[in-house]
Amino acid sequence: MGKKLIEFRNVSFRYGDEQPWVLKNCSFDIYEKEWLAIIGHNGSGKSTIAKLMNGLLFPQEGEIIIDGQQVNEESIWSIRKDVGMVFQNPDNQFVGTTVQDDVAFGMENRGIPREEMITRISETLSAVGMQDYLLTEPHRLSGGQKQRVAIASVLAISPQVLILDEATAMLDPKGRTEIMQTVNNVQEKNELSLITITHDLQEVVQADRVIVMNDGEIWDEAIPRDIFSKKDDLREIGLDVPFVAILADELKANGISITKEPLN
Ligand code: ADP
Question: Where is the ABC transporter domain (predicted)?
């Protein structure tokens, strides 16, 4: 394992004093350059975790440390430079009138010089396979293409961690496949940690590690193969093991592995 990039230490959170706790004493680490998938049924607390990592929310109990800094009101502006997020709805994420304007926007806010911006626009759009759409207006793109541009816009600001919060949830199967392939490419080629948040077990097959949430608690934390081996228990907490995972298990029994080996 590499260096720890994000640490959750006994984090509990609720949306108000009279509200129930939606995260209960959660502790976990995220390492540099790993792909961590966070999975759980709807309402299990996944998006709340994402918002805590980006300082959109702060925990009432426990602490969150990102790249050595505790997340609080003072540190959040510098931490947000390290944490890029892509959300569920592709239509809510566009700010530019063309694809290239959109990718440029976050860089303009950070005062990146023009020459550098041009290089990064080209590099990041190529990384997500959207290099031929520089001047296209966003409304002409498919859902999958919009999400790929959203990923490029985040990559352009060179974050240390990219979080995709249900980024495929509103896409058709083709769009989902596009995004999962893009995510895989990006993680292999870039020096960043990747956190994918999903309720679809199919999307965790290629992750290095999986955290399973259930009712605000960490239910399990393991490599995908070990998670999938608990099919019946997963069904009890509302998670359906996909055919691909069952197939992976069968192949493994015959000496063929299609999921990643544990990181050393
Ligand atoms: P997930 O992403 O796993 O679907 P969330 O983190 O969105 O789960 O939600 C966890 C719990 O917190 C749910 O019970 C949800 O209803 C509640 N919740 C989420 N957002 C709010 C909010 N803004 N105010 C009050 N409760 C909320």
Answer: 6-240
Rounded mean pLDDT of the chain? 90
Res. 243 pLDDT band, cuts 50 70 90? confident
Per-residue pLDDT tens digits for 176-224: 888 888 888 888 777 799 999 998 888 888 899 999 999 999 999 999 8
Write out residues with Cβ below 6 Å of ligand 1.
15, 19, 22, 40, 42-48
Residue nearest to atom 11 of ligand 1 (CA): 43
Q: Which residue has the tokens 């966003």?
A: 138
Tell me what percent of the residues of the chain surpass a pLDDT of 70.
95
Q: How many angstroms does the Cα of residue 174 sit away from the middle of ligand 1?
A: 28
Q: Please report the pLDDT score of residue 264 as a whole number.
A: 43
Counting from 1 in the atom list of ligand 1, the atom nearest the Cα of 41 is 3
Residue 45 alpha carbon, nearest atom of ligand 1: 6
ipTM confidence score = 0.98
The residue contributing the CA closest to ligand 1 atom 6 is 45
Closest to 196 in 3D by CA, of 204, 188, 185: 204
pTM across the whole model: 0.91
According to CATH, what is the number of the domain 1-81+197-264? Answer: 3.40.50.300
Residue spans of the domains in the chain: they are 1-81+197-264
Q: With 0-12 CB in 10 A as exposed, 13-18 as middle and 19+ as buried, what is 213?
A: buried
C-alpha torsion sign, points 152, 56, 143, 95: negative
